[in-house]
Design brief:
With about 230 residues, this protein is mainly beta. The protein folds into two domains: about 55 residues, no CATH class; about 160 residues, UDP N-Acetylglucosamine Acyltransferase, domain 1, CATH 2.160.10. It has three helices and 27 strands. Helix 1 runs antiparallel to helix 2. The longest helix is centred in the N-terminal third of the chain and has 11 residues. The two termini are about 25 Å apart. About 45% of the residues are buried.
Length: about 230
Amino acid sequence: MNGDQQDGWPLTITRRMEDFPIANLSLRHWLEMGDEALREMISLCRFPWDLLALNERIVGSLERDEISGDVHVSAVIEGRLKLGSGSRILPGVFIEGNVVIGENCKIGPNCYIRGNTSIGNACHIGQAVEIKNCIILDQTNIGHLSYVGDSIIGENVNFGSATQVSNLRHDGATHHSMVRNELVDTGRRKLGVMVGDGVRTGIGTLIYPGRKIWPGMSTKPGCVVEKDLRP
């Protein structure tokens, strides 16, 4: 693995890439436990969007439920769910596809969580939020009425109410991302935002697809993120 800050790696200020969690276990773990094809995928990781493909592979391969938390009787689960202890799935939540949720999380009410999504520990996914194919790290809150798709969200992030992430170009082409002052083809038709640790968005923030937000950055209410946000 050779990702670093020079390669458009804004996702963390506290860990190396090999310590980055997928399904709440580090890439080091998956290197040791994975099959040869998975180990090769991990070894080729360079950019943050490479982790989405790994997440799709790992979470998508879940074969059974592991539920240690509480699931409300009105919640609907269509797929495999791994739910940590102390976590609560509130009324009206619909989980479609395979999803991993850590410990002491609060999901809902009335959320739509789509696979393949991995949510860390002590996270809150608020009222009427839709999450699709994302990696969300520990202690992160996604405020009510928000949409986040095909994105990677770091630790201790707070998305203000109605933060909306775009993940699709109008022309349907693959997304490009700025790295070392050059646009790199990510190879992904759908790509949201890559957010570093400690980011805060104001209510009603709108984020263009394929953008990166460096650790500790913030937006004002109603902000439109057209370009990468970095110090």
